[in-house]
Amino acid sequence: MWKTPVDRLRLIGWFEGASFVLLLGVAMPLKYIWGEPLAVRIVGMAHGVLWMGFCAVLVDARKDQDWSLRQAAVPLVASLLPFGPFVIDRRLREGAAARAKQQAVHSPPDPAR
Predict the structure, then answer these.
(1) pTM score
(2) What is the pLDDT of residues 73-98, one digit of tens each?
(3) What distance in Å separates the CA atoms of residue 14 and residue 16, rounded to the nearest whole number?
(4) How many domains does the chain have?
(5) Which structural domain, as residue segments, surrounds residue 74?
(6) 72-80: long-range contacts, CB 8 A cutoff, minimum separation 24
């Protein structure tokens, strides 16, 4: 199911987005309201690792899909905003489906049939 670079980008985007929301909605209030900084250290580290993974997979997806820098900048900017990866996920899903449909139309017939 997660065989294409865009599918992997969508998957890690969901995890990265969830970690960002968790960082902002849970860990930061724990630190600044209740004086518990440990949650920010743990969730912040996980979020940072996931974001770096997102960037690496984005580079792979850009190469695979032959995206321009502008097209690749959209998911990158979305990853910097709370809920951004969830919003951009729909565009990535629809774009991947359209590209797969286009490739199916333009692919040569299978000689084994």
Answers:
(1) 0.82
(2) 999 999 999 899 999 998 888 877 77
(3) 5
(4) 1
(5) 5-105
(6) 75/9, 75/13, 78/13, 79/13, 79/16, 79/17, 79/51, 79/54, 79/55
